[in-house]
Amino acid sequence: MIERLSSKSEVRAAVAAARRDGKRVGFVPTMGALHAGHLSLVQAACARTDIVVASIFVNPTQFGPGEDFDAYPRRIEADIELLAADGVEIAFTPSAAEMYGDGAAVTVEPGPLASRWEGEVRPGHFTGVATVVTKLLSVVRPDIAFFGEKDYQQLQIVKRVVADLDLGCQVVGCPTVRDEDGLALSSRNAYLTAEERHLALALPAALEAAEQAAAWGERSADVLVALMRDTVAERAGGALALDYAAVVDPETLEPLERVDHRARALIAGRLGSTRLIDNCSITVTDREPNGA
Ligand code: AMP
């Protein structure tokens, strides 16, 4: 049976009771409009902990002016049913007033990891994310919190916030869940027209081109980035406005010149008014380019 709780004190009490029974607590924070990507985090949490808390909160402070806070899909009743079916015991559904009271003067600045990529395109976004995640972790106090690799920069930032502020929980990253055609599942995919949905496949295609080239021995990050940009131009032309395509160090997120070990390819762009982001891991082999 799932319990829907909207106040921080109720959640604290319910988690404390579970802990007294010796249970390990898992936590999956979300903004709702749940899809199989979110549910994969829930399943990972159920597999590794004894009681799972999932939050549904469309956090206003991580949306900038002119972004889609008002339009963001909200279907809380259907979400709760999905969470219940997958074994979540506690759904935490606070209001903005419950989360922030009369406003909050103190925020969490996530530091250099937030300066590039999404942080540059969406000023203030990661301060909002770091602050709300810190607050949610302080309320729930999980043993393990689960985040998606889909939001790769967010995952790295959350790991850093938890380490630097000694929040005392483990952060587990879960692989990106994709539709059959390769498009990463996202609540924002609901905004896409059928034509845009097709053009959006340029993003995973670009990542795959970079991944393949690296697997065949290409080590120049510039070449891999050019390949990503060319793939997007070929597949979507001017309809997909790229915000960035990058090959970065998987921990620092700084751009690389050469890919000598592991790297991460990041890509983001806009189709009409919809912003989409994606990423994948890049591994080089010892082969030289062109099979030499
Ligand atoms: P959101 O509701 O978009 O804030 O996402 C909540 C959590 O689900 C975040 O940790 C996301 O990274 C994760 N997530 C979103 N989409 C996916 C996906 N396609 N695969 C895996 N995790 C995802």
What does this structure look like?
The protein has 292 residues and is α/β, with parallel strands linked by helices. It folds into two domains: 3-174, HUPs (Rossmann fold, 3-Layer(aba) Sandwich); 187-291, Pantoate-beta-alanine ligase, C-terminal domain (Pantoate--beta-alanine Ligase, Chain: A,domain 2), CATH 3.30.1300. The chain is built from ten helices and nine strands. It has helices spanning 8-20, 36-48, 76-85, 96-100, 118-121, 125-140, 152-164, 194-199, 202-215, 221-236; strands spanning 3-5, 25-30, 51-56, 90-92, 144-148, 170-174, 240-248, 262-271, 274-283. The strands form two sheets. The chain has a six-stranded parallel beta sheet, with helices on both faces. A three-stranded antiparallel beta sheet has the order 7-8-9, covered by helices on one side. Strand 3, helix 3 (76-85) and strand 4 form a beta-alpha-beta unit. Helix 6 packs across helix 7 (152-164) and helix 9 runs antiparallel to helix 10. The model has no long low-confidence stretch (mean pLDDT 96). The protein binds adenosine monophosphate (AMP). Adenosine monophosphate (AMP) binds at residues 30-31, 37-38, 40-41, 147-148, 150-151, 174, 176-177, 184-187.
